[in-house]
Amino acid sequence: MAQKVSSSLQNWKFQDQHVSQNLAGGDFIGSHSCIICATGPRLADIANNGGAFVSGPEGVEDLESSFAIPIGVIDSASIQQSRQMAQIFEIGSKRSYLMASRTVGMMNVARVMYKGPNLLRMLYAFYPESKIDFSTGEQSNVLSELQKDQTTALGPEPISLDSSFKENLPDIKDLPGYNNVFLNMNSDLFSQPYGIVLYMKDNHDQDVAAVYLEECYIENHAFSISANALILAENVTMRFERIVPIKVKVVRKKGAVTSSDVTNYLK
Question: What range defines the domain where residue 251 resides?
Answer without folding.
Answer: 9-265
